[in-house]
Every structure is written in C-alpha cells, then in structure tokens.
Amino acid sequence: MTPQMLPRPLAAAPRAYNFPRFSRQTLSNGLRVIVCPVHKLPLVTVLAVVDAGAVYEAAGAEGVAALTARLLPEGTSTLDGATLADRFERVGARVETNADWDVAGVSLTTLREQLDEALPLVRDLLVDPVFPEREVERLKAERIAELMQQEAEPRGLADEEFAAAVYVEGARYSRPDGGTRESVECITRDDVVAFHAARYRPAATTLIFVGDVTEAVARELSESLFALWAGAAVADSRGNPNTVQEGSLVRIVAKADAAQSEVRVGHAGVSRTAPDYFDAMVMNAILGGLFSSRINLNLREAHGYTYGAYSTFEWRRAPGPFVVSTAVKSEVTADAVREIVGEIVRMRETAVSESELTLATDYLDGVFPIRYETTAAIASALAMLVVHGLPDSFYDEYRANVRAVTAAHVLRAARTHLHPDRLRIVVVGDANAIGDLDAAIASDGGVRPITDEGSTP
Amino acid sequence: MQIPIVRHQLANGLRVVLSEDHTTPIVAVNLWYHVGSANERAGRTGFAHLFEHMLFQGSEHVGANEHFELVQRAGGTLNGSTWLDRTNYYETVPSNQLELALWLEADRMGNLLPAMTQEKLDTQREVVQNERRWSMDNQPYGTWWERLPQLTFPETHPFHHSLIGSMQDLDAASLEDIAGFFATYYVPDNAVLSIAGDFDADAAMAMVTRHFAEIARGAARPPLATMSLPPTFGGPLREVVEDDVMLPRVFMAFRAPVFGSEAYYAASVCSAILGLKKGSRLQKALVREQQVAAEASAFTYDLAKGADLVVADVTARPGISLDALEAAVNAQLDDLVHGGVTDAEVTRAVMLIETELVAALQSAGERADRLSMFTTYFDDPTLVNEQGARYRAVSAAQVNEFIVVHLAPDNRATLAYIPREGTIADLSVPDDDLAMAGAP
To answer: Which ipTM value was assigned to this complex?
Structure first.
C-alpha cells in the first residue's frame, strides 16, 4: 500500500520579487498623493489616511475619532446617508471608514471602470460631511451596542482589562480605542463637528492609489477633486497616551461558569519607530509570533491546553502593549500562565538556536511577496509608511533587514523589551476553577506579582 | 474576467487543476477531499475535523510539527478547514518551493498512518475540545452554528449534527477510527489538487506525477444517507436560547436551492438584497430607519447537496425586545413576499457581488480553492470563470420567484438568542425609545 517516497525536494532558484513601485506628490494645499500602479486585475483601491486617530481625542470624549470616521458616509451637504450608500453600491464600490489609535482611514475598492463615479463621493464624505443629528445619535447607539457586546465577550473583556492593567488611568491607551460606554454616551454632535474641523485637513491627509490605474490618471483625479480643499496644517494635540503603571500584577475578572479562561500576559511594549524594530519583531516571531513559536508549541502542541497561543507587539506611534494571548481550559489556567511566564524568562536567558532563528527569518523573508497579493494589502502597507514616517525604501530593504538579525540581536531585544518583573496578568474566567495563580508564577522564575482583588464586571 | 484553467487526471483518479499567473513569484497548492462531517458515523460527531488536525501531526517522512515548520521555513502560509461535506488543505509558498508543498501533501495522502500515535491523538483531542470552548461555548451566541443546522435539517439528515462535535464523541475517537477514515476517504480518487500562480504547467505536472501517481486508488466509499429534501420546511421552525448575551439576536434561515443550481443565483442575489451592506433591505429599514437593530446581514451557506440555506442575522439595538425585533424582520420579509424586488435592487446586489468576486481572485490561494471547489462539486473548474455571468443573468422576476416560495412564513426557521435572566445591565436607553420597536 505504502508508495515509494522520493526524498524531500530542495528549493529551486527563487525568482526576484520587488515591492510594487510607487511615486509621491504633494498638492499645493498640502495633500499628499501616493500612486502605486498594479495592473493585475481591473480593480483599484484608494485609501485616504488622515491624522485623526484616537490619540487626538480630548479626555472624556474617548471614541470621538472612531465615531467621526464612521459618520463620514452618513450625509454630505448634497447627499444624505442613504443616497450616498446607494450611489456607491449601485456601482459595486466597497467603502469603509474607521479610525485606529493613530489615524482615520477611508478606503474605496472598486472595479476600474467605476472609479470616476465613486471617487468624487469619497471626496465629498471626507471634505464635506454634515453629521446630521439623527445619524450621530444612531451611530452612538450602535457603538454602545457594540461595546455592550464586547463586555459580554470574554476575549474583548480580557483585552480591555489588560489595557487598563498596563497603563495608568487617564492615559489614552488604558481605554479601548473606540471609547467606553460612558464616554461614547457623552459625545455630542458638536464634538464630532469640532473633531472633524480640527483634524481632517489636506495637510494631514495622504491619498493612496493602488491597482489598475496610471500615475497620470490618479494625479489628475487628485488635482481635480481635492485641489480646492482648504485648511491650514494642524498643531499636534496629542497628550502622552502611554504612561504605564509600575510593577507587576495579577487580576482575575470573575466570570462564573466560564467554559475557558481568557489569559493575557504582558506589559508596555515598544514604539514602531524603535531603532531595533527588526530585532524585536524577529524575537517576537520566535517567542510567540509564529505557529511554530515556543509559546504555541508549548501550550498547544506539547500540553494541549489551548487551540492557540500567540504573542504580539502592538505597533503604534507611541509604545503599545506587548501581550501574550490565549484561551485555556479552566483547570490548567495556572499551569498555562506559568508556562507563558517561563517562556518569557527563558527568552532573556540564552540566545536562540540557529534553527529557531532561521525559522523566523526564512519565514519573514519568504512570505514577503505573499503579503502583497491584493490592492488593499498594498495600500495598507503604504499607509504604514505614512503613519510611521518610514522611508520609501522601507519595503525594498525589508528582507535584507530581516536577514541581518542575529541570535545576539534577538537576545539583546529580549533583554531590552521583555520584562518578567513587570508582568501584568489578566485572566477572565471561572475564579473557582482556575487554581492558584500566585503560586504558579512564584514557583517559576522568581516573579512575585502583586495581586489585586478579583473584580466582577 | 477569465483566468486560465487546465485540467488533468492521474490514473489513480486524482484530478489536477492548473491556473498560471506569473505576476508574482508565489504559488498556491490546494487539496479538497470530498469528505466532511456529513460522512461521520453515529457516535463520532466532530471526527472529520479532529482528523483534519491529525493531518498536521506528521506523516511517514515528516516529523511531528514538521509540516508547519517546513512550510513556514520555506516562507509559506498554510492551513486546513473542515466543512459539512468537504475538507481542504492549502499552502501558498514562494514559487521556487512548489515541489516541497506537493511532496508534503503527497506524503500525508500516501503515508499518514505510520506517524499516527495515541499521544498525538490525545493532544489534538484536547486542542479541538479547546477550539470548541473558544469558538462556541465561551462565545456569546457561539452555539448558533451548531444549533442552526440542527434546527433546519431533519435529525436523519447528514447535515443535522454538529461539525465541531460533542465532547463525548470526541473522547470516543480512536486510532482505529483514524485508520478507517483515512483508508476510506483520503484517497486520490476522492480528492482534487489545484495549483494557482507562478509555475510552468509541464514542470508542475511532472512534479504532481512524480509525487502522487504511486498512491493507490481507494475502494468504494459508503454512500451518504439520503440528502434530498423537500424545497421548503413546510412550516415555521423556532428555537429560543437563553445565553450570556447582552442583546437579543435572531438568525432567520430559509431552505433554498442547492449551491450552483440555476435557482441558487437568484437566492444568492436575494440574500444580498436582504442583508449585504447599507443599501440592503434589512440594514436600510431596521438599522437606519426604524433603528430597532444594531446590526443586520444575510448570507448563504453554499451547500451543494440536499438543500442550501439563506440566513438573515439581526442583532437588536439596546432596549429592543426579541418580539419587537422579530416582528420587524418578519415585516420586511412579508414586504418582499408581497411586493417583490426592483431591478435597481438586483443591479446593486450583482454589482457588489461582482466586485467581491474580482477582489477575491487577486489571491492565488482563493483561485486555487475555488478551482478545487467547482471541480469537487461539479467536476468542472471552468465554472470559476462563469460566476460573473451567472450573476449578471439573474432577473428581478427570478428573484421574486425565489422569494414567493422561500421567504414565505412556512419556510422560516427562527433561532433566537435572549439575555439570560440577570445578564442585562441597566440600559441607558430611555423607555420612550422602546415605542419604536415593531413599528411596521
């Protein structure tokens, strides 16, 4: 029955790949335009990136950035929201508007032949939204419904509690980027209008064209639609979003009869513009970023505690969290936390093996062209350049930079960016079934967390 | 939009579909096995999916965890998934690593069993049980995808039982079950292999032949229990579940013509008119105008055997009761049954679907997966290139024909979730807003 098997084949010679070429231009009003022609399918993505993320919100108005972005397509001075939706959809155009920590984004993906119809509407909603009172109230209520759902959902709750455990109260990063029920309730139409007026300016916006479009056409469209958009550059109103709490902590959020424990272990991480970004990224891939990472192989494949366990650095302009996330069977919660802490400690002790290093670097190098198959993915990659002020050569140099990371660099990154003495541990689960977390952690690596009392939402 | 398609078949029955695209040096390999949860025997619910996990545990020449590692080392992405009537395995790799991907798939198709151990099975059983807890048991509304097929397919039907499986049945799965399932279903004549992306067709076929031609054809497979069903439920179906949720939510399902049939395309367009994006009936009426729903959408299951399902999924706004929500949804359905859809609504739906089709085909993995799908279900990969035309051919009259039969009250199955007593925190919605509920 068993067929004769040939030996494992070796790789053939690789074919060269370049990240798609793109050009830049700045209109007289300060609007920046990036054009990246990709003539593969008759499809175009246009992504407007605006410096209007959650970090610009005033205290008490958390959520106004996301609400403003979502309200953009809900009415302009010439078209109401329903008409606007109809105009986009009858030509099959897909439009999404949202805000994250640093920026707001308006993305349009459409068949090439519909671009002339759809792009003027994008201009209207970006430049000329009117934020009807009724729509403001409706989207607030929808947003509150979403936040209520999140509170009932162990994963969302764990993420929220973790952020609150890492950053000091009042720091923007301590609360969800979309705001809380209380803060969203308090937002008025005036807040939205003011946020739009202050942040949505041509000089704070980059328009990114990707796909079946020429540079000439994209430039002409940008000029004809956006050249008259007026407004001076805006001052940077950001506070310090990332003041961290000191020391370590274990917080149990009791959820009676939970079928699993949602676990978060981590602390404040590092800014996207850190000089050792590539070292930190490769280090994280080995620790918990890949399926074959230490944490996932330990928790899932060796112990069967979980369906998956991952670590990540949340890359923002200011240092976002470093966090290990998993969901485990309640009875093994303490064991799982101990294994996670142990892996973090181990990462700082000795250099990774050559095999572990090359698994990560070969993967990150090889997967590079697979990441940019779609116009939307390329547009997002270009947006990263804009958000973080990375050089235009970033993607051309990416693979060489990954390859240059050594085991010594990884060790240095682990010792610089992982802090077992400052771990913030949050568990959402059945408090009666999860075991003694303090004992589990203290027995390994000498971590002595301060436990605060379990809170019930 | 057309993609190039070439089809071959090996002597052992393996069907091979090739689609070249040299714009990027990457290639997708995709294998569909025509087996899913529908093929499970009584007392072994969840087994097809557990088996899928075991296919990542190594094979005769691939160590435990090595399958993932070898593909990732090659710079590739990979996964697998299990559905009611098929299981797929796929990887996208740099094009110079095509043969590695084929070799890995061939080794597990031809030589899986020597690598299977009780310890691996026990660990993956735990992993799958945790997957069940994570995706269903510990998720608000998470049980819907187990409950909805149970509500809408009769008990004797192969689509009725749980895909993820019960904890007891997962506990009962043994190495003998693995061996039996493998010998029966994981054979070349029950599989389709698709390759899409940057490769030379002759060279690729030589590789496929080299690695797969020796694998023996399977024996006769036991037929599925009777799949065919009456066109409608023949009466309303209903289940109300109390759960740890904050807001009432209703899944309303309609029995529909099977995926790929002439009438399917009208059903799919109807689903888009009902719940695809802001201009759809449910979003426009219930979210925007009446403000009784916080979210609304609709989709099709795309089942190619027995009967398909169209499903509307609507979540209440805070303060809106299940009764009010359901009444509002039913009123929209009744409107459709009595008034039908307009040409403009059909155009909107078809245009949106077409953009999605083109956007999806940008990805080599999606191309390969769709080629495998159309070959598995209809023995015809070129159907990938006909989807746009099939949708454009749908008329308002055809959609209305579908609606009159399939959105009628005797073909509505309602799966509703309501907050368990004590779950709801104080709602900040003033009481007079409640008067809007059920306005129609």
So the answer is: 0.93
